[in-house]
Amino acid sequence: RSVVRAGGLAWEYYFRFEGGQPPWISGMAQAVAAQALSGAGTLLADPTLTAASQRVYKTVPSLTRSVQAGPWIRLYAFNNETVLNAQLQTIVSLQDYAGRTGDQAATALVSRLQVAATGMLPRFDTGYWSLYSLGGAEAPLDYHQYVVRLLGILSRRTQDPTLTTYAQRFGDDLRQPPVVNEGPAPGAIYPWPQDGYRDYARYVFWVSKRSTVRLQIDHAGSPVVVSRGWHTILWSPGPIQPGQYTPNLHASDVVGNASDTDLPPVEVRRDTQAPKINASLAARRLYWRGTDDASPWMGLKVVIRRPGAVRTLWLGKQTFRGSALLAAPRGVWSATLFAADSSGNTAKVPLGSLRVTRP
């Protein structure tokens, strides 16, 4: 049922929505109500319905706000969101209402709303899709299609070249596949064993509109949905033969238009080289410094020997530079350091004599 607001009739909403507290009203809904009631009044030759439509229209001017190009309808009275479909639908609805009732004030408002819409349309165009609201996200498919239909109606009614251009442009977006631009090539990877270091190739890409994307290559991950802009997708193949691989990025937009883009090749390597390491003893303390561009750590152990005895001193996973105090039994030992990377490649470094006088 309607209530009286601003000297006119309004339909209130009695639920919370996007931060709005009930009761709230919608400028677009008021315009559509004026359109519907005036249409019913004309069809049924019922002056009470026509009069009701005029009372509904009285609320509409107060439900606009000023933007750079002119007045913009408030889809929700409680916020300032600049929604494209709401503006276009309001223009269509008020054109019908004004034409049936001869309301000159409505005709003048329609003219100003249209000027604002044509002036702001470029700011809703990403070049590949429409924005739902100014400065917001891409419109969902049904709203983009809705905007195309509204622009088509207004283009035919007004012959406005800007409206015609955007009706065609946004319509073309429904048939064009996503555009993908590739980022820099990833470096070589060592995906097996998976040790947390250079296990995956990191691909950076730009996509022109909301799409579902997936890599087309052995051991690719699941598809992901991304919005327009720059994104990252990872390829972590696990145990795979060394060699050069060239993935393809398949992108499908919300309509189903698809494109395939070859990404830069990546070299998959298998680590077969032992770490390079220097080490020395100072009394019982071991110092080491090593490098290995395919492993994040080294597993260290020191094997000590003397006639009739062999001991292994386990130091565990270590960084490539450090020191450790060796817990060895008393005596004079011959010491050797063994440094293994995450692939098991092992370097051997003789340390000379280890003299332990106390535990």
Describe this entry's structure for a reader.
With 359 residues, the chain is α+β, with helices and mostly antiparallel strands. It folds into 3 domains: 2-173, Alpha/alpha barrel (Glycosyltransferase); 180-268, Immunoglobulin-like; 276-356, Sandwich (Immunoglobulin-like). The protein contains 6 helices and 20 strands. The chain has helices at 27-44, 47-57, 84-101, 104-120, 141-158, 161-173, and strands spanning 2-5, 8-11, 64-67, 70-73, 180-182, 201-207, 211-216, 224-226, 229-235, 243-245, 248-253, 258-262, 266-268, 276-282, 285-291, 298-306, 309-318, 321-325, 331-340, 346-356. A 4-stranded antiparallel β-sheet has the order 8-7-11-12, with no helix packed on it. Strand 3 and strand 4 form a beta hairpin. Helix 3 packs antiparallel against helix 4. The radius of gyration is 36 Å and the shape is elongated. The mean pLDDT is 96.
Key phrases:
359 residues; alpha+beta; Glycosyltransferase; Immunoglobulin-like; 3 domains; four-stranded antiparallel sheet; 20 strands
